[in-house]
Specification:
- The complex is a heterodimer.
- Helices cover about 40% and strands about 20% of the residues of chain A.
- Chain A is an alpha/beta fold.
- Chain B is an alpha+beta fold.
- Chain B contains 15 helices and 11 strands.
- In chain B, β4 and β5 form a beta hairpin.
- The chains are: A alpha/beta, B alpha+beta.
- At the A-B interface, β1, α2, α3 and α4 of A face α9, α10 and α13 of B.
Chain lengths: ~120, ~325
Amino acid sequence: MKLQDIRDILGAEVITGGNLLSREVSMGCGADLMSDVLAYGKSGSVLLTGLTNQQVVRTAEMAEIVAICFVRGKRPDEKTVSMASSQGLPLMGTTLPMFESCGRLYKNGLRGVSEYGE
Amino acid sequence: MVQDKPITKVQELVYEMKVKQVMAENLITVRPETPMSQLREIFRQKRISGMPVVEGDYLVGIVSLEDFIKWLYDREEESLIESKMTRQVECLYDDEPLVHAISKFERTGYGRFTVIDRRSGKLVGVITKGDIIAGLLEKLEIEYHEEEIHRYRASHIFEDIVADRTRLVFEYDVLGQDFEGAGECSSRLKRTLGRLGLDPATVRRVAIASYEAEMNLVVFTKGGRIVARVEPGCITMEVKDSGPGIADVKKALQPGYSTAPQWVRDLGFGAGMGLNNIQKCADEMQITSTLGKGTHLKISILTGDDSGAKGNSRAARSHRSHGQEES
């Protein structure tokens, strides 16, 4: 699944990285606890989260997350956006809540981290 | 604030680079008293479609292929360029950013602009869209090349250095309570290890462990130091601080045990998973702590062929990990 598909499925607004939407995403990871993302997230995942601070972008960098989608209509501040943009990390935001965002992506064929082989 | 448009490297460059960096300086110019009939040869030989008309160093007009064709079409007698050239010339200053030039091209639909030195008012160059594209590509090429060289130099260091044992040490100072900058050190460490050409999965493990450790330093201490040692086959990382120390290391190692305040939890950490995450990433882990004195965490991650520790060694790894208490 490509980032642009995720944008369409979630009716998401692209905050930064609009030129990178052809990037391939192999699985999805939904969490508000960054330690869980670090522990269970895999390289090549899209992260769905309700947290919007700079540590989310740092976490994505360490865990090699390919894009972040903020749920529940949350929006990051300017610093977070510029940090992501300098790392080439696309950010988007959907008004859907976490459960529905994950559900829609899963229904459309995006796999979870536990189903995805190394 | 939400940004509507993404910022790309090229967008960054069009703000950063100036007109004078990309303009053509070897100007082909004509004088006002040159006859129109001579233009044919100049346009043909130089394969250009327009040029500035100058008197001394100063621009007085611009004459284009279009002016020439119009002159031919009107079947006028020989006339001087002076009488056919365009006098109202749209110019750019040499110190303007490229983004101004681009918007001027878009707004006017012109193919070229003459460039004037802001202070002296002298003509210094001509810029076309092609010059902008070529200038940007060259700059991107240079920056790409620089990163390649970084990578190349770094990744060959182990082969180039002649010693019985080679060890690279990277030290990072972590500020306590600096939540803004938290993660910066791990980010730099990750970039450094990437440049060394180490296996990406290994780099990721080191980065995650270091990031969790860095968060601990930021949240709980007044600061500390992360020291990463890279040697063939193994990366070790030591994280030291000078207090307050962990009261019960065994407890701290239990998943979900946390003494973090609510504000840390609000930021997505402090759920008592940090040390477990570090353990998960490491092939070996030792932690010693003394209340009031500080904590010393040491982990090793095996790399390359010597490790054999990819994927299936998780169980073995956690087996080897152990907590030690000093007191």
